[in-house]
Design goal:
Layout lengths: L14 H22 L3 H5 L11 H21 L5 H15 L1 H9 L10 H21 L2 H5 L6
Helix pairs in contact: 1-3, 1-6, 3-4, 4-6, 5-6
Length: 150
C-alpha cells in the first residue's frame, strides 16, 4: 500500500466528502448573505452578547464576511493540504460563534429564524455537527495529523 505524505495526497476526495463540503460551503454563503442584508443584518445584532465590548453591527458584518469567505473557500479549495486548512478554519469559526448561540438562548434573544426558546435551544446542539462536518468533509484530521500506522 502506497502512503502519501502530507501535501501529496490524491486529489479525488470521497463523493460523500465532496457533497458535505459543497453543502457546507453553500450554507455559509447563504448565512453570510443573510448577515449582510437588511433587515436580517439588524436582526442578527441581538445575537451579539451585551458583555462583548464591541459594536454589534461590526460583529455581524465581520461574521457575514467571514462566512462568505469560508463558504467560497470551501467551494473553491480541493487540493490538500489547503482543503484541510479551510476545514479547520470553518470549524474554528463554528466554535467562535457558539457563545453567541448560547447568549441567544440564555438571554432569550430573538434573531431571524430563531424567535422562540425551543428554536434557540434546538440550535445549540447543531453546532457540533457543523464543527465535525467541517473537519470530516475536508478530511482535515487525516490530512493534518500524521498517522502512526504505516
Amino acid at each position: 500500500m502506497h502512503s502519501h505524505p502530507v501535501g501529496d495526497q490524491p486529489e479525488c476526495p470521497h463523493p460523500a466528502r465532496v457533497v458535505g463540503q459543497v453543502a457546507l460551503g453553500a450554507l455559509l454563503l447563504a448565512a453570510g448573505t443573510a448577515h449582510l442584508r437588511q433587515p436580517t443584518r439588524a436582526g442578527f445584532q441581538d445575537a451579539v452578547p451585551d458583555w462583548l465590548p464591541v459594536d454589534k453591527d461590526a460583529v455581524v458584518v465581520a461574521s457575514g464576511v467571514a462566512e462568505l469567505a469560508l463558504g467560497a473557500a470551501l467551494l473553491a479549495t480541493w487540493r490538500q493540504p489547503a482543503r484541510a486548512w479551510v476545514g479547520v478554519a470553518a470549524a474554528a469559526f463554528f466554535v467562535a460563534v457558539l457563545p453567541g448561540n448560547v447568549w441567544m438562548y440564555t438571554a432569550r434573544k430573538s434573531v431571524p429564524g430563531m424567535d422562540t426558546d425551543a428554536k434557540r435551544l434546538a440550535r445549540l446542539p447543531l453546532q457540533l455537527p457543523l464543527i465535525a462536518g467541517a473537519l470530516a468533509a475536508t478530511d482535515a484530521v487525516r490530512t493534518l495529523i500524521p498517522s502512526s500506522a504505516g
